[in-house]
Write a structure and sequence with these properties.
two-stranded antiparallel ribbon; 13 helices; about 0% strand
Length: about 290
């Protein structure tokens, strides 16, 4: 349950480090989930489904980047509008392609790939080393994202773009190009994150499949202080809350807790952590369009 949140929150960390809030992340998750389902269903190939999911996320991110980076429009308003657009797009074209089926359409989900020896470790082995390829990709992404962001010249450029874009501009680097390309990268990761819910987990698509989890990934970026390490801790906490919610519904604990409260558990955790978090190292130019001085 942590895998898509990790992919989405790291995507958001990278984008916001350059000053770009991907407020369309919920819509990117959704269109990625839809693209993954449609691509897999029509082609019979999960690999093509994942590629279509990334392509859909890329397209949505490109639209968001064009409007906010180059047209200098307000990021929150644009992201909210694109989220609504994504929901309508997926609902409409899903009906155009598949009609209104009597029973939900199904695709085969990604198989679990147990790692020899490691998957045999009691308790931990089944949790961490008997997962599908998207989860293993997330494992690799953690150290790579930390290294790139804090130990390379590219990472320095990304961080400087969000803190002092004028200095980046003086160094001869195109600030808006850096921001736009980072938004595209975030869109690809966000689309892949969304596809986890259809291709990697449920094997079906509904317009409510994301259920606000894109916004949770957005919140994890803040709560993790714009650092991949914080994102990892946040996704584990929220993934656990999500898993507990699903488990409690499955085993029927409604006599102890109302079902609505169980479903709301991850979102309640988001609100509480946001309220009690005191220190935020916000990138100085987060949400601020950059216009080159003449």
């Amino acid at each position: 349950m942590s895998t898509p949140l990790l992919l989405g929150s790291i995507a958001e960390v990278y984008a916001e480090r350059t000053g770009m809030m991907i407020c369309a992340i919920e819509g990117i998750f959704l269109i990625g989930a839809w693209g993954g389902f449609v691509g897999t269903y029509l082609s019979g190939s999960q690999a093509l489904g994942l590629l279509m999911a990334m392509g859909c996320g890329l397209a949505m991110a490109a639209l968001y980047g064009m409007i906010t980076v180059y047209m200098k429009q307000q990021q929150v308003v644009t992201g909210t509008a694109l989220q609504i657009l994504s929901a309508g797009f997926c609902s409409f074209f899903h009906r155009v392609i598949f009609g209104v089926p009597i029973t939900p359409l199904q695709i085969k989900t990604l198989p679990k790939l147990p790692i020899p020896l490691l998957s045999q470790i009691p308790f931990i082995g089944q949790i961490f080393f008997n997962q599908n390829i998207l989860t293993y990709f997330a494992y690799i992404l953690i150290p790579v994202s930390i290294f790139v962001l804090f130990h390379t010249s590219l990472g320095l450029t990304l961080r400087s773009t969000g803190e002092n874009p004028e200095a980046v501009d003086v160094a001869g680097i195109n600030v808006n190009k850096v921001r736009f390309l980072t938004v595209l990268f975030a869109g690809v990761l966000g689309g892949l994150a969304g596809s986890f819910y259809t291709v990697g987990y449920l094997g079906m698509f509904t317009t409510g499949i994301i259920g606000g989890r894109g916004w949770i990934a957005f919140a994890i970026c803040f709560l993790g202080n714009w650092n991949p390490k914080g994102a990892v801790l946040g996704t584990l906490a929220f993934g656990l809350a999500d898993a507990v919610s699903v488990w409690m519904q499955a085993v029927g604990r409604s006599e102890l807790f109302p079902n609505e409260l169980i479903i709301a558990l991850p979102y309640i955790l988001t609100i509480l952590l946001t309220i009690f978090r005191s220190n935020f190292n916000v990138p100085a130019k987060l949400g601020t369009p950059y216009t080159k001085e003449r």
